């Protein structure tokens, strides 16, 4: 199937990829725009993962205060250049992350940041629950490990399902934005305030 310059332009607008990348993707998919978008996203995310080691010393601190004034969030999201930090794409990502934190109340950015004493306390609770089920010891260990992993998905920001689209995690959202802007993006830290909570 043939494609036109207009198709290439449309694909560029949808994905933010370069003109030659879009042309190549349309050639590879014989003009199928949806498949071309999918291919570009896969390549973009792969490129974004290669950039993970790049230093992120730019970015911004974004705030979100819930309309009732009882929940507030500050989040620091970093990227490689000031140019990207000023783009709408980056600002939208930071805002979405702040909104998500207000709603989902994570404990840490990633699972390494979850305090070990909290994880150990949860592990003990899961073990007691598993033992009460009367299952054999080898099954109990697997059940506990599974519940701990599930717990991380509840409390580690990057592992949490995004409130707007639960099939994606916040980590996926960051990777996609990173692929679009062509830079490493990191959520450095956040703080969430809730009225009456310490």
Task: Please supply descriptive tags for the structure shown above.
globular, alpha+beta, 3 domains, 8 helices, 198 residues, single chain, Helicase, Ruva Protein, domain 3, 55% helix, Tetrahydropterin Synthase, Chain A
Structure characterization notes:
The structure is a single chain. A hairpin with a 5-residue loop joins strand 1 (58-65) and strand 2. The protein starts with a helix and ends with a strand. The chain has helices at 5-15, 19-28, 33-50, 82-85, 88-104, 116-132, 137-155, 170-181, and strands at residues 58-65, 71-79, 186-194. The protein has a 3-stranded antiparallel sheet with strand order 1-2-3. Helix 6 (116-132) crosses helix 7 (137-155). It has 198 residues and is of the alpha+beta class. The chain has 3 domains: 5-52, Orthogonal Bundle (Helicase, Ruva Protein, domain 3); 56-110 and 156-194, 2-Layer Sandwich (Tetrahydropterin Synthase, Chain A); 115-154, GTP Cyclohydrolase I, Chain A, domain 1 (Orthogonal Bundle).
Q: What is the total tally of β strands? A: 3
SSE ordering: HHHEEHHHHHE
In DSSP terms (H or I, runs of 4 or more residues), the helix count works out at 8
Question: What is the CATH class name of the largest domain?
Answer: Alpha Beta
Question: In terms of quaternary structure, what is this?
Answer: single chain
Number of domains: 3
Shape: globular
Low-confidence spans: none
The CATH architecture of the largest domain can be given as 2-Layer Sandwich
Radius of gyration: 21 Å
The share of residues in extended strands comes to 5-15%
How far the N terminus sits from the C terminus, by CA atoms, comes to 62 Å
Q: Would you give the CATH topology of the largest domain?
A: Tetrahydropterin Synthase, Chain A
CATH superfamily of the largest domain: Elongation factor Ts, dimerisation domain
Report the sheet with the most strands, covering strand number, pairing sense and barrel closure: 3 strands, antiparallel
Strand sequence of the main sheet, in spatial order? 1-2-3
Mean pLDDT: 85
Structural class: alpha+beta
Tell me the helix content.
40-55%
């Amino acid at each position: 199937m043939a494609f036109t310059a207009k198709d290439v332009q449309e694909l560029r607008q949808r994905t933010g990829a370069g003109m030659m990348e879009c042309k190549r993707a349309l050639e590879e998919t014989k003009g199928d725009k949806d498949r071309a978008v999918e291919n570009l996203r896969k390549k973009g995310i792969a490129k974004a993962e290669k950039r993970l080691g790049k230093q992120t010393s730019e970015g911004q601190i974004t705030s979100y205060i819930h309309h009732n004034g009882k929940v507030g969030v500050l989040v620091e999201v970093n990227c490689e250049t000031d140019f990207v930090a000023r783009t709408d794409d980056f600002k939208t990502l930071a805002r979405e992350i702040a909104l998500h934190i207000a709603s989902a109340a994570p404990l840490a950015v990633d699972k390494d940041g979850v305090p070990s004493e909290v994880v150990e306390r949860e592990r003990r609770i899961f073990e007691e629950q598993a033992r009460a089920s009367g299952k054999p010891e080898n099954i109990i260990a697997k059940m506990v490990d599974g519940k701990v992993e599930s717990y991380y998905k509840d409390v580690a920001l990057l592992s949490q399902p995004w409130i707007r689209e639960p099939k994606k995690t916040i980590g996926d959202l960051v990777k996609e934005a990173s692929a679009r802007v062509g830079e490493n993006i990191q959520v450095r830290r956040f703080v969430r305030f809730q009225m009456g909570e310490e």
